[in-house]
């Protein structure tokens, strides 16, 4: 497994490199967002996981992960930040992060989170009774084993968070699921947090599964509550 660490505090970056290598990971360190993004330009990622600091010189970590997701780079990402307010956590998740850890952190916790992201990707791909490995929504094939969606014969990758959200909605198909429940069950964030991140994820999912995202027929808004999924 090859981990990219993007951290401008040299002592912290080198400490992460040393300890992750001791756990058997290959590690590359970049000191700013621009250099990190350059690693992905015009090529398939050689990394399996990204550890990304929020407060970077130049473009910040939120912008780095946003650009990577726009470029269809979906490697699991753990964001590090000195800010731990729930709204900041949601902002990181909305940008495309898969997990979030506040500084200062215990090294053992960080390594456990990294291993957890790797396991989560493997578990999502494992066979399960519900949802099944593959599910169709409005004729679109969701493949939970490869973390992809197939539309008109073309496959596109999904992030871990997009897959987790889809799984939860499928498990509660036909029910009105509140934004608070999605924050709590999918993101593990307190329900008094700003819910706009969820709305942004719903917009993205509609682009995947709806024939006309502006007039959804499968992923419906339940006014004053949240959302309801009908597979169609």
Could you say what the CATH architecture of the largest domain is? Answer: 3-Layer(aba) Sandwich
CATH topology-level fold name of the largest domain: Rossmann fold
Q: Please report the number of helical segments.
A: 8
Q: Give the C-level CATH assignment of the largest domain.
A: Alpha Beta
Strand arrangement, major sheet: 2-1-3-4-5
Distance N terminus to C terminus? 39 Å
CA-atom Rg in angstroms: 18 Å
Order of helices and strands: EHEHEHEHEHEEEEHEHHEE
Q: What's the mean pLDDT score?
A: 84
Secondary structure: elements and pairs:
Elements: E1 2-6, H1 10-22, E2 26-30, H2 33-38, E3 49-53, H3 61-70, E4 77-81, H4 86-95, E5 99-102, H5 107-125, E6 134-137, E7 140-143, E8 148-151, E9 154-157, H6 160-171, E10 177-178, H7 179-187, H8 196-209, E11 219-222, E12 226-229
Parallel strand pairs: 1-2, 1-3, 3-4, 4-5
Antiparallel strand pairs: 6-7, 7-8, 8-9, 10-12, 11-12
Helix pairs in contact: 4-8, 6-7
Written description of the protein model:
By secondary structure, this protein is α/β, with parallel strands linked by helices. The chain has two domains: 123 residues, Rossmann fold (3-Layer(aba) Sandwich), CATH 3.40.50; 104 residues, Orthogonal Bundle (Arc Repressor Mutant, subunit A), CATH 1.10.10. Helices cover 40% and strands 22% of the residues. The strands form three sheets. The chain has a five-stranded parallel sheet, with helices on both faces. It has a four-stranded antiparallel sheet with strand order 6-7-8-9, with no helix packed on it. Helix 1 links the parallel strand 1 and strand 2. Helix 4 packs parallel to helix 8. The chain is globular. About 2% of the residues have low confidence.
